[in-house]
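In the previous chapter we treated chains in isolation. Here, by contrast, the input contains four separate entities that must be folded as one system, with a combined length of 1400 residues.
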Amino acid sequence: MQTPRINVGIVGGTGYTGVELLRLLAMHPHANVCVITSRTEAGTAVNAMFPSLRGQGAIGELRFSDPAKADLRACHVVFFATPHGVAMAQARELVDAGVRIIDLAADFRLKNAAEFERWYKMPHACHDLLAEAAYGLPEMHRAAIREARIVGNPGCYPTAIQLGFLPLVEGGIVDTAHLIADAKSGVSGAGRKNELGLMLAEASDNFKAYNVAGHRHHPEIVQGLNGCSATPVTLVFTPHLTPMIRGIHATLYARLTDPSTDVQALFERRFTGEPFVDVMPPDSHPETRSVRASNVCRIAVHRPQGGDTVVVLAVEDNLVKGAAGQAVQNMNLMFGLPETTGLTAPPVLP
Amino acid sequence: MQTPRINVGIVGGTGYTGVELLRLLAMHPHANVCVITSRTEAGTAVNAMFPSLRGQGAIGELRFSDPAKADLRACHVVFFATPHGVAMAQARELVDAGVRIIDLAADFRLKNAAEFERWYKMPHACHDLLAEAAYGLPEMHRAAIREARIVGNPGCYPTAIQLGFLPLVEGGIVDTAHLIADAKSGVSGAGRKNELGLMLAEASDNFKAYNVAGHRHHPEIVQGLNGCSATPVTLVFTPHLTPMIRGIHATLYARLTDPSTDVQALFERRFTGEPFVDVMPPDSHPETRSVRASNVCRIAVHRPQGGDTVVVLAVEDNLVKGAAGQAVQNMNLMFGLPETTGLTAPPVLP
Amino acid sequence: MQTPRINVGIVGGTGYTGVELLRLLAMHPHANVCVITSRTEAGTAVNAMFPSLRGQGAIGELRFSDPAKADLRACHVVFFATPHGVAMAQARELVDAGVRIIDLAADFRLKNAAEFERWYKMPHACHDLLAEAAYGLPEMHRAAIREARIVGNPGCYPTAIQLGFLPLVEGGIVDTAHLIADAKSGVSGAGRKNELGLMLAEASDNFKAYNVAGHRHHPEIVQGLNGCSATPVTLVFTPHLTPMIRGIHATLYARLTDPSTDVQALFERRFTGEPFVDVMPPDSHPETRSVRASNVCRIAVHRPQGGDTVVVLAVEDNLVKGAAGQAVQNMNLMFGLPETTGLTAPPVLP
Amino acid sequence: MQTPRINVGIVGGTGYTGVELLRLLAMHPHANVCVITSRTEAGTAVNAMFPSLRGQGAIGELRFSDPAKADLRACHVVFFATPHGVAMAQARELVDAGVRIIDLAADFRLKNAAEFERWYKMPHACHDLLAEAAYGLPEMHRAAIREARIVGNPGCYPTAIQLGFLPLVEGGIVDTAHLIADAKSGVSGAGRKNELGLMLAEASDNFKAYNVAGHRHHPEIVQGLNGCSATPVTLVFTPHLTPMIRGIHATLYARLTDPSTDVQALFERRFTGEPFVDVMPPDSHPETRSVRASNVCRIAVHRPQGGDTVVVLAVEDNLVKGAAGQAVQNMNLMFGLPETTGLTAPPVLP
């Protein structure tokens, strides 16, 4: 049997999702990264920018190429690890050339272009492709992803929060008008950029909420949950910054409309067979480090004092299941590979 | 005019609340720490254990004395910075000798002795003193504290959470049957003790919830809020451990029963003149570091998307306003000093 | 007796040394900060930028003023907490108006203007004032500082490293041709600026050396040590970045030429009476946190295996004894106040 | 061709080197962990203790067994991830049964039993086996390791420090009587144990030296360097604790006796072909995170100001190349596998 070989292009590989893609693809037996572009770093070797990739073979020795000159049409798949707005500008040409696209930014996440424009402050460039794009959360849209030409890879918060609410909302057993997501993220979620609040001297030994009035991931989460809910979803979403590099911890609150439900069993049933969702035993408290550098979302369910409020704890590595790992999972689905291919390395603990 | 001089005893000064008391009392113009006890460290100089107190004068050169031999009856006030159960065993004798007591542990917090026994797994030793003790949250019980012989100093979570809910609950404008407190604490809140989960290699670059099924501070918070609420309080309280040394961030959720209320104005009005509660302007996000090493509780109020859920953000330094600083504030009240005496040093930022 | 009142101006108060100056001056009984300038933040209240100063009285309510419009000539003293080059451009006018200057940048540190120009890549603007300026390390130049119109406040590394080598070099008991300073700094030493390598996601859980080939503080240290050495000094200086906010730990190596010397006694004798240098007992290991937020430099001396190499461990808070605290100490000297005025708050530990 | 299958036993797998071994062996195509013992955790599933190993197949579902009952004689190789003294007590029986041993503790590191007894405060149990054991630093003793029945896996500091000094000492171009190793370690190097100084609240935002008078790794390093030096080695070794989980950064100082040497070329030549030693280009500063979770030791060489002192910077992950990864590398050698088998996953950055 022939080993399949997927020619991969990466647009904008100098951020955290970019270097994480490189790390994961270096461990992928079928991925062949043949081009990686960067406006600012054209000509630089990948491993000169990221010395962690020295000695990792071809992937580290690759050089960033000028986006204006790179020909991505020979790739089987192109990942966009870029700011919002880049993928939609290039999608038409690539799709027409038969290249499949996985966008790690927001261009293909929100089905409602007006919502996209409201939150991302730019007009959407290709409404038709937006309509056909699959939302890349395999646990909800696996079949569509398999066939998709374009996948909008979910945001980091939306992955953990949707997975955590999913069984409750699908099951129709909670008051969807009053969902609360209190989420805490490590700083890499904000990207590899110079921002004063992300400096170690500012963000370390500190904790704060931000964007309480409204965060771009809010409409994405609501869209996803509405898609599997019989009743309209209203969500209060409070993001916080916590002094760690990787990891998201979502603490979710929902009021049971049917308090007789066995929520533990419900969660276990819903995620049976899911390779990357781990429902822990009752009374567990998942830690973000227990998924560090891995593609797992680990979940525990509580019902404090037997009351009518369910508390769901969901953790993920924001750069893996919340970004690059999920993108590779989507690539595996799109190319008919076992879903876990290249994603089996255990979490790094401690 | 004579400068008042308060002779202070500290029982159990080797933990974090103990060393924090020493730091604050070193800056207090009227406190004269004359005895500090420790079972394990008797004979050791304070500044041999805590080199940060070298060169800080008498307070650092004091030696820990054997609790069995120390005579605390000559003190004007004794702070207990001990495990639960120690203060109640010595309270009777001290009170009879005219010594006033501030207990930083839980012995005099819960009015219901059965609740105390349920959560702290020991019988209460002095029900009568429990009955007369004041709960040391000045913003709620200032008059009682002034007159008290015994003050039960609040827990760290209860301070931030009660202050944050106070205006809403007193005002009778929220559904008190469904309050949610999602709280995040730095590791010093757990005390200066060898516990695997508190090691840097375990707790750093990590985030987790704990005790979701029930935490000892739960009954204390509910007792306090019930005391100022016309309707019974039910609370879901989720504590989390965040990788920082000091600081608590409480994110509080309550549903408005009267959505026409101006909650910002309500909070500002309620805390006018309070020296240690700072209500920030609308749309603020208080950071824990903005109160580091100071006695301030800083609060912001939000109402995301103009919905019916109020989100309160409250931060404090768990070792100061959540412990030793509040204890000194209580001492000031008990001895007729200006409430801010010795507590005016600005927060340490960055 | 009249309480002296020192009118203070601060130029460029938005960086870490600026906000630290504000914190320290808020505790100073004689300092009256009347003007603080910032090009970018003119009009902003100080406590809007630094919420830690909310509720700290006048100093927090001050507004940054436009440097072009601010009149600093009415001040008794002006601190420059600016990038290199700003102080020397304004020094002449201020000195002529009788204002005294403490520059926290490098303009008045290096006596040799050519050295300044080599390391800071700009011509020196006022050679005559450079010649008269005092180097603001009180433990070496106390008398000169008292009389100075201009003080060049030392760099953070040079403070700890010079104090640590001082007794050995003055004593003429080490081979000054082969001194080694292996120094580790928290990230606030690099200033409050957007620099990728200083982000929490880059600098946390990481350790690295930098500028091993040459660091701007190298000539400053060598100048200082040469000033008290009978033989020429050659120094290898290796700075490192360690994942913490504040603190410098200098590990110094020197080879004894006279191995019979009692180095512990030598250090104790040299620093007797110094209020801000603490020589610890033999076999101690000073921790940076033991001086956090305080003006102390704590030192221990070792001679491993009784060999001919002395190892000195010296710690300081880079923002206090390494910057703003030393600047206030210098101000106290210049205005005839007790040297410790406003600088007595204990270190914050934990 | 038959895939070889190595039956592996682990004694004492509840510490950091234990769980790291499990992580690495889970990625090893030929290792079959069949028994893991723990006195305290007998009966517990590995993944109940380390939830990071949930979903990692057989290795996570294994249960710790009672050391008294476990039969290790059926294993091909047994790793001891135990406190010092355990391996030597069991070595005889296992070796006689044809089992090969890799000890991650110190029992088989120091050839001189008296030195062992001096530093580890216990008599050595099997002098003959000590004599035949190979010292498990492949870059120095590859041939001996291949044939060994017992491998004493090096300590974490000794690995980085010996590799960093190796070309200089072997080359005979430095004054070996005056070597200095200033080393900084993350806290996991101290093991997974309750020790006050290792708590996050104590060790975070802090930096300190420790054991400056003498550290157990000192004789091990000196033994190794003496083994390849024509002149006797005297070393000053200063270990420091830095607030991070993983990583060692060794900064090494040596004085050139022949200043004409091209040290960069010397290092490149010495480590050509070494799969796990990376000599970086001139003027580099390796970061510990660039080797996080990987088996690489990354080295840079400097000669500041062209002087006679060489400064070597060497980084490793103390749990991988400094412990479990090197142990797997040794296993690969002992069983005739390619040396990099199972050790190729890229470092985790950020």
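The mean pLDDT of chain B is 96. The two ends of chain B are 40 Å apart (CA to CA). Compare these points with the single-chain example from earlier in the chapter.
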